[in-house]
TrEMBL record:
SUPFAM superfamilies reported in the protein's UniProt record: ATPase domain of HSP90 chaperone/DNA topoisomerase II/histidine kinase, Sensory domain-like
Main location: membrane
Keywords recorded for this protein, A-Z: Cell membrane, Kinase, Membrane, Phosphoprotein, Transferase, Transmembrane, Transmembrane helix, Two-component regulatory system
Pfam family, one: HATPase_c
Entry membrane topology: Multi-pass membrane protein
High-level lineage: Bacteria, Bacillati, Actinomycetota, Actinomycetes, Micrococcales
InterPro entries xref list: HATPase_C_sf, HATPase_dom, His_kinase_dom, sCache_3, Sensor-like_sf, Sig_transdc_His_kin-like_C
MF terms in GO: kinase activity
EC number: 2.7.13.3
Catalyzed reaction equations: ATP + protein L-histidine = ADP + protein N-phospho-L-histidine
Protein name: histidine kinase
Protein localization: Cell membrane
Domain of life assignment: Bacteria
Keyword Transmembrane helix: yes
Amino acid sequence: MRNWSLARQFFIGQLVFVLALTTTISWVLYLDAEDNTFDSASARMLAVATTFANDPFVLEAVQSPNPSDLLQPYAAEVMDELGVDFVTIMDTDRTRYTHRNPSEIGGQYIGSVEQALGGVPHVELFTGTLGPSVRAIVPVTTPDNTVTALVSAGVTVDTVSIARNAQLPLVWLIAAGALTAGTIVSLVLSRHLRRATLGLGTEQLSRMFVFYDSVLHSVRDGLALTNLRGDLVLYNDQAAALLNLPPSVPGEPKPASDVGLSPSIRELLASGRRAVDEIHVTDDRVLVVNQEPAVPASGTKPLGTVTTIRDHTELEALSDEVQTMRTLTEALRAQTHEHANRLHTIVSLIELDRGTEALEFATRDLQQSQQLTDEVVAAIDEPFITALLVGKAAQANERGLHLDIDVAGTLETHGMDPRDLVTIIGNLLDNAFDAAASSEERSVSLSIHTAGDDAGFVDIEVGDSGPGLSEAQLGTIFTLGSSSKGTAGTRGLGLALVRQAVHRLGGTIAVTNDGGALFTVRLPAG
């Protein structure tokens, strides 16, 4: 039995229950039929005895000199016609005037007569000369209510049992119908349960739950199970940490709209669609999400979805640093290429014996190159940002863009993660370069200055001469997959990472159209 499936155990249990219930019902119906039969027999005998007692012929006969000669033929005829086992008419001293067996006439009546002698009819189950019987005893009274005789009518218990047994086929039919209906219903329910439990037994289900629950909480990736409505049915500890969810409680589904998920992940869970290595950016994490429908082995419709979540925040941070190093490398390459051209120019002037022009050209070039570096270094105390801006200036020059950098005052960046600042400024400038490259002016502006009454904020503004943004883009520009160019890709991820970095620093970001796109970031200083 321990290896039986849950469906079989349920069927056997239901069958035993139906058998016990059917037996109980049958026994109750049997007792009820027996009671009804005895009650019916008692009422019938009381009616027969009362009819005899109220008959004027009987009253006249019991007062005659020889009552038996008059009453015995009459009682025998009525007994035969009504199917009554005995009708005994007796004197008040129990002397019988009539009896089923004529030899018993003149003998003493066996039974209770006290109540009848008191003028009250009485019904009882008593064992007399014919065996156990249901009998009624009724007094025969004169007009002045004097009891002059008694009438007892009855049927034997065997006769009552025959009447009771006549109702047993109906009882057995009801019992058989209840048993058949219960068995069919139990069979249907057990088949449904077999499909729902995949034919597994209770111990197998218990072990499976323990193993699966252990796996659920031991894997390093986040794992979430959702139903067809998109409600979170179950998730492990890692998923709770990655999605900022409260601890999972088995058996209590949580609607995705009630647990503070990011819009993109909430949409994915609600859709139930298949997802492969999708990148989703929350306020503080970069997540790679996979989702598959949970389809039973029988191949019926899905029960929900299984979603796995991997944390790529650190990997994206490393990618940002690599991108920053690549930007600086490209800036150095651009500067090297530009200085090589200028050096060739100086060498050519010297070879042409035009030393004065060569010296003037070298001096002017040195002043122009050093001016931007000096301004940035003097205003910003963070070497990463300084290197980034110098490199971006060289990159803009190589791409034929005009980059206007305006740094107002001396900005303290203590307390700000330089990696977040590099992410914000670098991605916004890259986005602006791409947007301005297709315009006639081909210009990009960067403004960094303090703001607020007590200079408690740092404002970073990046504008371009590009075509600007549509109304639809203004509402979705910072979501994953969107960009100011209107195409999805790494730029869309870059803007989403900018929003994430701004939120980590406790700031705000907004975008408007001002000739081109204008991104404004406000960060709390220090």
